[in-house]
Hints:
This protein is an alpha/beta fold. It has nine helices and nine strands. The protein has two domains: 6-170, Rossmann fold (3-Layer(aba) Sandwich), CATH 3.40.50; 188-293, 2-Layer Sandwich (GMP Synthetase, Chain A, domain 3), CATH 3.30.300. The protein is 35% helix and 22% strand. Strand 2 and strand 3 form a beta hairpin. The longest helix has 18 residues, at 251-268.
Amino acid sequence: MTNNYKSGFVTIIGRPNVGKSTLMNRLIGQKIAITSNKAQTTRNRIQTVYTDDEAQIIFLDTPGINKAKNKLGEYMMKVAHDNLNEVDVIMWIVEPTTFIGAGERHIIDVLHNTNKPVVLVINKTDSVEEKDIFEAINTYKEVFDFTDIVPVSALKGKNTNELIDTLKKLLPYGPMFYDEDTITDQPERQIVAELIREQALRQLDKEIPHGIAVVIDRMKERNSGDIIDIDATIICERDSHKGIIIGKQGAMLKSIGTKARYSIENLLDTKVNLKLWVKVKKDWRDSDTLLKNYGFRDEN
């Protein structure tokens, strides 16, 4: 490594569902953050690492910035806002539209209170025509003085190399923070819990996904070394939700477990025996104790 090596932290912000986690997974080349089309998919700060011969970029994927409705929401917003003061570059992900709503204006107000370089990333360019992308760029140029604007498609991988190059230019010179083969600081148990929650988010309807958490009760490799036994509990807020999560004759829970097991086996590169249970903890999202028990800890 030479004195020309760069390293630093980039936080990814944006409203829910603009593709933050999809983009981060694309940039580092491996799935770490879960994705779904529902809000509140990302709850904790997820730290992932991109490393090449020129630079190491540590990405902080934060919860989508919106108005908090309960203590879980307040925790999520604190995580998102706190990150802005800890990083070298802020990467704001938006969709290719000329409509700037209240949510975007709230983020603009937040950005005006920082002195960090801000790169605007216009995602989902594969879903619109080229003229729409230029119109979106011009609209956002009028509301904030961005250091750079990069249109990308996280889904297709379009222009992501250009985005990496843009971020490299803005990082300070310095050594690696992590070994070159590190891709995340997340414990395996936490990623496994998130992969189970991802399948619940994708397969359940409406408000139920917001009211669930996943706890890994047991995760142990067998003596033979060729299979890992995982026991996990899906926590929900109401008895009626429990019935929906389990489904008729256990069909929904089986479906969640089957698809989650496939993702977990890909992550761990081994066979997995996954057993799921469902428990009701009323209003856990407003309980400080339960929030901490389920991994939502205030680190400051």
